[in-house]
Automatic annotation (TrEMBL):
UniProt source species: Polyangium jinanense
Identification of the protein by name: Nuclear transport factor 2 family protein
Lineage: Bacteria, Pseudomonadati, Myxococcota, Polyangia, Polyangiales
Domain spans labelled SnoaL-like: 8-109
Signal peptide residue numbers: none
Pfam family, one: SnoaL_2
Length: 161
């Protein structure tokens, strides 16, 4: 197994345990992260996001598969089941991840998932009717960004360090 493939598997095994510190240990100090909700996070933002999500994801279950990697890039497929904290609604998120590596760590992590599908599950009727619109998707991103900023401000010891 390529060392970068093992690194991705280590990352997801930590995620399965909601072990944010174990996930962060797989990241380069200058990592960047982006997905359909958290767009363009720097290293501090990425670390804070995983800490926040792992702390709040009390019923999170996760499966991962199709892990591939070489010297410079990698990919994986993962699926998470959890209750969205704002509504209590069940979400089954289906995600394809891509990675870039530097110095034996993950330097860039990008997750791709269908945000409209996510809004339908997480928000219910509003997501079904409006989840495809740039307006609602922008609102979801803004709420997530605000929630992460509040988490990091309230938990400076758990934030981006």
């Amino acid at each position: 197994m390529h060392p970068n493939q093992a690194l991705i598997e280590q990352f997801y095994r930590a995620f399965q345990k909601r072990d944010a510190e174990g996930m962060i240990a797989c990241y380069h100090r200058d990592v960047t992260f982006s997905d359909s909700v958290f767009v363009g996070l720097d290293a501090a933002g990425a670390r804070g996001m995983w800490r926040m999500l792992c702390e709040r994801g009390k019923d999170l279950t996760l499966e991962f598969s199709d892990v591939r990697a070489d010297d410079s890039t990698g990919s994986a497929h993962w699926e998470a089941h959890y209750s969205f904290s704002a509504t209590g609604r069940h979400v089954h998120n289906v995600v394809d991840a891509s990675f870039e590596f530097r110095d034996g760590k993950i330097a860039r992590h990008t997750d791709r998932f269908d945000l409209w599908r996510w809004t339908r599950m997480a928000l219910g009727p509003a997501g079904i009717l409006l989840g495809w619109t740039p307006f609602l998707q922008g609102k979801v991103r803004a709420m997530a960004t605000k929630g992460l900023a509040e988490y990091m401000a309230k938990n400076p010891e758990r934030a981006g360090a």
